[in-house]
Amino acid sequence: MQPNQYFMYPFSLLYDGITRLRNRMFDTGLKKSVAFEIPTIVVGNLAIGGTGKTPMVEFFVENFKEFHEVATLSRGYGRKTKGFILAGLGVTADEIGDEPFQVFSKYGHEITVAVGEQRILAIPQIIVERPATELVILDDAFQHRYVKGDLNVLLTTFQRPFFKDHVLPLGMLRERPEGAGRADVVVVTKSPETLGEATKRAYLEQIRPFVKKHCPVLFAGLKYGEPYNVRNKEKGDFRKVILVSGIANNKLLKQWVSSNYELVEVLEYSDHHHYNEKDIKYMVEQIKRHKGANPVLLTTEKDAVKLNANKFLPYLQEIPIFAVPVQVRFEEKDRDTLLDMASKVIRNKAYKSEV
Fold first, then answer.
1. What domain range is 304 assigned to?
2. Half-sphere exposure for 32 (CA within 13 Å, toward CB)
3. Judgement on whether residues 180 and 135 belong to the same structural domain of the protein
4. Which of 2, 58, 81, 91 has the fewest CB atoms within 10 Å around its CB?
5. What are residue 329's DSSP bridge partners?
6. What whole-number distance in Å separates Cα of residue 63 and Cα of residue 151?
7. pLDDT in tens, 135-189
8. CA distances to 90, 280, 304, 325 from 317, in Å
């Protein structure tokens, strides 16, 4: 144990004690979980930071929006507002959060996107305002136990799986690894494309003690798509890029960009970073500094929705900004397993909207 870990250990014990007490109160019924008539899919994790929740939410949206009236619900982390908000025309990332705004920008004409800290109150509000809704996907709600999800999808990264981690602040876990026992399915995200069967078995053996007996453990990677211009959605022909990212961990993104483009500069910001005028001016300076290379700004979809804000147009209007789309990559067997579980939940509820 490192010297600084000795200092954090008592705080980790305290945090662990608080979360264990809270979970115990739910387990014994002292705190109540509410199950809704409408089917609910919970996507979440045990750790703080990026485990690929938004791509997983979009995976469910992509696969169910044609057959059901879908709504997504999150608390809208990093937004400058409070309370329940239903995304609509003119809404901004500052109002609903960057990740919900990303989902709304891509699917807002097909689904409902809502934010609200108190999900137990937000779900009835969604049903009242959008009575045709038939499925609610809750983003980052694994610890929000006031809502009893019909399918609890727990994500953990291949690089830092929960069974090798520790409770905050000693590690990155919001609760102890035993919390995985509430999961109906575990997805090991950001898995390498060349993942071998021996490695899979090793992960399975280490996950099994923490989950229910028949809980499936699936493996998923990330698939980066062809970048598109954030203003006109067109593809572009370029080779040199300045990478801008404000995500929890951009290691995989940098690897992909470096293997496909010439990376002339990397501008890294904290997760959910609120870009300001100073940040934008610095980006413009870097574009000018490398003008001989004629680079574009390349960023994530989550960051793109913020950089493309009207308040930054005076600075970035003439600068090409491209976003890299990212999707969950499953092997067919694991993909079918997850979709079958979700479909069964929807089918068993047999929920009928009032419209």
1. 228-324
2. 4
3. yes
4. 2
5. 221
6. 15
7. 999 999 999 999 999 999 999 999 999 999 999 998 999 999 999 999 999 999 9
8. 19, 11, 13, 21
Taken as a whole, the chain contains a residue count of 355
Do both 216 and 241 map to the same domain?
no
Count: domains in the chain: 2
As a whole number of angstroms, the distance between CA 15 and CA 176 comes to 10
SS3 295: coil
Q: What is the CATH number of the domain that holds 302?
A: 3.40.50
pLDDT 10s digits, 265-276: 999 999 889 899
What's the CA gap between 287 and 279, in Å, rounded? 13
Residues 81 and 191 in one domain: yes
pLDDT in tens, 9-64: 888 889 899 999 999 999 999 999 999 999 999 999 999 878 899 999 999 999 99
> Are both 168 and 317 inside the same structural domain?
no
Sequence-ordered list of residues with C-beta below 8 angstroms from that of 147, at least 6 positions apart, any chain: 33, 34, 36, 40, 42, 119, 120, 123, 138, 141
Tokens coding 250:
């951009």
